[in-house]
Amino acid sequence: xxxxxxxxxxxxxxxxxxxxxxxxxxxxxxxxxxxxxxxxxxxxxxxxxxxxxxxxxxxxxxxxxxxxxxxxxxxxxxxxxxxxxxxxxxxxxxxxxxxxxxxxxxxxxx
Length: 110
Fold this sequence. Notes:
CATH topology: Trna Endonuclease, Chain: A, domain 1
Low-confidence stretches: none
Distance between the termini: 28 Å
Number of helices: 2
Structural class: alpha+beta
Shape: globular
Number of strands: 5
CATH class: Alpha Beta
Mean pLDDT: 88
CATH architecture: 3-Layer(aba) Sandwich
Strand order of the largest sheet: 1-2-3-4-5
């Protein structure tokens, strides 16, 4: 669902479930113009206990950063050309999708 959302929004998805090691993963790697966007996708069946993105703690951010650094090294991407987004999905009827751009490590792609 998040993949289709990004495509409809004009992103080009270049990788899914990128996993350079056992303890790090990026759900979606996409391009928006010249910017590489690392996207963490979180979902819940309801918003009763808050937005799904609240599940991204400091430890999870470290894992995302580790995977992103691996991807950037392999692809020759500069730190100033990346952004970290979060897509929250609540499986209500109809499903709700919230796209938080530059969700953490603010100001990377300036």
